[in-house]
Amino acid sequence: MFQAAQEGERIQYAGLYKKAQYCLTKGVEFIQIDLESVSEFKEPDLKENMEKIKRMGIEFGIHSETRAFGVEIAELDSAIETDYKFGHERLREILDKSGDIGSKYVLIHASESEPFLLLERHMQPTLLVDFFGNPLRDFLKENSVLLEWLIGGKVDDISEKIYNKWITKEPKDRKKITENDIKDAFKSPDFIWRELFNGVNLADYMRRMIVDNLSHREINMGKTYEEMTPEEQETMNKIIKGVIRTDLNEALTRFLDFIQSRSLHYGPERIAYYIVAKYMEMNKDKEKLWNNIINSNINYFAKVENKTRDEWLKSKNIKDLTVEDDNFRLHSYIWVSAVSAKYIWGHLNQEKNQGINKGKYPDFKPILKKYKMPLVLETPMSHRGIEEWLRMPNPTQFYYLVKEIGPEYIQMAFDLEHMLSVRLDPEKVIDSMPEDSGKYTMVIHAGYPATLSPAHIPIPLGSEQHVYLYKMYHKLWKKGMGKENPCYLVFERGGGQDPIQQSIIALRKIVEYLEKDVKPEDLSKYPDFFGIAIGEIASPERQLSIITEHARDPLRGLIVIPEETHTSLGRAALEKGKRPEEWKKEELR
């Protein structure tokens, strides 16, 4: 708010306490305070001052730092070690400080990380970590099945298969062994190896190593392979067999070194996401996040396109829900959110970390439990042109994360403006969510449902936007919102001379009629919802009286006889030189 305010009014928002004071005359019971810098917690006497706010009957929550405020923050779903470390440490400090001053929640944007599809054009260090913050290299070594997946099996088995491809060829053709020959011997995820070998897959890399070694030895011997004696060829075959095994091991070592390097490359974070995705896929019986989020994403997009699940998958030519299926992998919005959620899950489950960094990242849960203050996830905003490419934007994805971590530690926020701005259809999202999803909705960011975020436009009382918001919130109400647990309905103000206008009244009407459980289609029976009540200026009775009183106004000035307008006394007044306006004033005295 300090940055958004006009120069003359910034003094009112210089710090958390000043921001909280803004609401005191607005007729509300709760205020959400934007944390624009973690240094705001250093404000003198902050805790004592926030107690004054609470004694006035005002509760508050903290909206944590976000790139929308212009803050360069590290995201919880980052697989880059530096980001993981600083993101965890900074959020832990914010949670602790917020709980200490009495905040009811700390809200963060779920993921403002660089969109997965854009990573290939951004330089990053290749020091990668798993979802617990342990080196990705160690994670692979501990999960040997993932290493086997990377190279297509066990090193000895693959070496033997490649060698058999070599030896079964005619001697004159052995030097012409092809990439496809080697691919027939094993299957590896080419999309990962191309990142390491600059566009070359593992099979072609192995072919080059074999041919290059053979050519080098031919030069040393002064003869081609075909010119060698059978005994020399047999010796050469044994050398090639050793070369295959050695080069395969070296490729694996090179890969493990690569993902633990500080050198810069284009988007190496994608490798970590691919590996964690495969880990979740391999363990999908216990990895509920993988199954639930992927299935919910497919169901949502099918609903948006008015197709069945099978029709939608067929239209995208997706045959199998695995990262090895090219079309599944390339439609990254289906599965990237599951990996993103897993990284956030890791930050909130550090007590389960048994890796090398066990204890390095203190768990958030004790803080959240101590202050009874959950972490709340909100749909983030997006830059123009990449609206639908965010890693984890859909509240349904938050729901399954809440179920995995626990509602006492994490909750959801709904912001229809943000959802619309990232091309999510709020109605279809809510309709596709489980029936108890409203129970875990702790915060509603209410505002004019604009598609150009952040608009934060006031809500006109009785407007179409007012009715639309009620319709959406009623759907959440039917799914449990605000019934068992508190839900805070927050209007996020924008700029301008009067950034609130009728919004607080409009929201009070929404709450009143939600608690009456009035269906949206029945609102027309209740003029009061639209700000029209008996005795008030906009009531039907007052309006009818005004209409009757002014019914003949359209005829004014059209009657020929002056007495019809001014009366006879009015004519007399005119003859004495008085203007009609003067006569009217005297008439009313």
Q: Could you explain how this protein is built, in words?
A:
By secondary structure, this protein is α/β, with parallel strands linked by helices. The chain has 24 helices and nine strands. The strands form two sheets. It has a seven-stranded parallel β-sheet with strand order 1-2-3-6-7-8-9. A two-stranded antiparallel ribbon has the order 4-5. Strand 1, helix 2 (46-55) and strand 2 form a beta-alpha-beta unit. It is 46% helix and 8% strand. The radius of gyration is 34 Å and the shape is elongated. Mean pLDDT is 89; it is low at 560-564. Helix 9 crosses helix 10, helix 12 crosses helix 13 and helix 15 runs parallel beside helix 17.
Q: Major beta sheet, specifics?
A: 7 strands, parallel
Are there runs of 5+ residues with pLDDT below 50, and where? 560-564
The total count of helices amounts to: 24
Radius of gyration: 34 Å
Q: Quick one: overall form? A: elongated
Question: What's the total count of β strands?
Answer: 9
Strand order of the largest sheet: 1-2-3-6-7-8-9
CATH class of the largest domain: Alpha Beta
Rounded to the nearest angstrom, the distance between the terminal CA atoms is 51 Å
The CATH homologous superfamily of the largest domain is termed: Divalent-metal-dependent TIM barrel enzymes
CATH topology category name of the largest domain: TIM Barrel
Count of distinct structural domains: 3
The appropriate CATH architecture of the largest domain is: Alpha-Beta Barrel
Which bin fits the share of residues in helices? 40-55%
What average pLDDT do the residues reach?
Answer: 89
β-strand percent reads 5-15%
Question: Which structural class best describes the helix and strand composition?
Answer: alpha/beta
